[in-house]
Amino acid sequence: QANYAAGNAFLDALAHHRRALGLPGTSMAWGPWSQVSGMTGTLTDADLQRIARSGMPPLSTEEGLALFDAALGVSEPMTLPVRLDLAALRAQGEPQPLLRGLIRTPGRRTAAATANGDAAAGFAQRLSGLSAAEGREVVLDAVRGQVAVVLGHAGATEIDQDRAFLDLGFDSLTAVELRNRLSALTGIRLPATLLFDHPTPAELVDLLHARIAPEPSFGAEVLLGELERLEKTFGGLDITEEIHEQIAGRLEVLRAKWNGLRDTAAAAGHDGSASEEDFDFASASDDEVFDLLDNELGLS
Q1: What angle do CA 40, 45, 47 make, to 5 degrees?
Q2: Most exposed among 33, 53, 217, 259, judged by the fewest C-beta atoms under 10 Å?
């Protein structure tokens, strides 16, 4: 619509010019009308919902005609007969410069920023303690949910994470809206070119997950944390004899591997056979460790 915008800019300037010369002239920058017209005839329901979410719901025919009469009765050469949803505009945080005269209460902007910050902190908290795979699924569900809202889908499960955003139906306007929604959700300042730099939901999810929940560097604290999580799970298990033996065997493998890390220097056994002292726990597979334990316990 670049040609349409240029034409409007010319008419706005012409109205100002004529008024400066003492001549009549009025330019009206209309908001959308609910009645189908040449400008809105090709818009889908999702397009109309997007415009409404942006804080500009459509005008009824009666509202439009009343605003037309009102615009002719003012001395300004240019008017904006639009319907604004101030609550939706406040929810977006910092208002656009043109609207700051209507939405300029610092407390409200601070409250909106605080609400966005709380939402972002809550989302990051949901990822806390999850494995990389689990965390990625949470981010994927969130991205799919936002994509569904922007595109007007009833559900998010139909969105293929490996399909390009352009093929899903995104254009420049919906791309910016998705960027804004994800920025508010995650608390991360994301570029306007987000969907072009990361053209599929899968690539976008990988970016967001890495930014929100980066992989921790492995160390003693991480290992102790994993052991604490494991210990907490013991209380909620329904243990059978078979499960007990399986888990006990697995724990024995881990204990043997951990003990083997203290001293990896091999020492030949007195009878020349392999023993725990010359067993390489660091590189051994679980099956090899199980075989060693079976030999030590006389089970094979």
Answers
A1: 65
A2: 217
- Rounded CA-CA distance 56/64 in Å is 13
What is the 3-state secondary structure of the chain? CHHHHHHHHHHHHHHHHHHHCCCCCCEECCCCECCCCCCCCCCCHHHHHHHHHCCCCCECHHHHHHHHHHHHCCCCCEECCCCCCHHHHHHCCCCCHHHCCCCCCHHHHHHHHHHHHHHHHHHHHHHCCCCHHHHHHHHHHHHHHHHHHHHCCCCCCCCCCCCCHHHHCCCHHHHHHHHHHHHHHHCCCCCCCHHHHCCCHHHHHHHHHHHHCCCCCCCHHHHHHHHHHHHHHHCCCCCCHHHHHHHHHHHHHHHHHHHHHHCCCCCCCCCCCCCHHHCCCCCCCHHHHHHHHHHHHCCC
Tokens of 149: 């809202």
For β-strands 27-28 and 78-79, DSSP reports them as parallel
- Sign, CA dihedral 200-204-210-213, equals negative
How do residues 4-19 score in pLDDT, each as one tens digit?
889 999 999 999 999 9
* Alpha-carbon span 235 to 269, nearest angstrom: 41
pTM above 0.85? Answer: no
Residues in a beta bridge with 78: 27
CB of 136 closer than 8 Å to CB of 236: no
Whose tokens are 């990389």? That residue is: 132
53, 87 in Cβ contact below 8 A? no
Look up residue 296 and give its two tokens: 């030590």
pLDDT tens per residue, range 181-229: 898 888 888 888 889 899 999 999 999 988 887 665 556 666 777 777 7
* Phi, psi angle pair for 78, to nearest 5°: -135, 135
Token readout for 56 is 């500009």
Q: Could you tell me the two tokens for 3? A: 């040609």
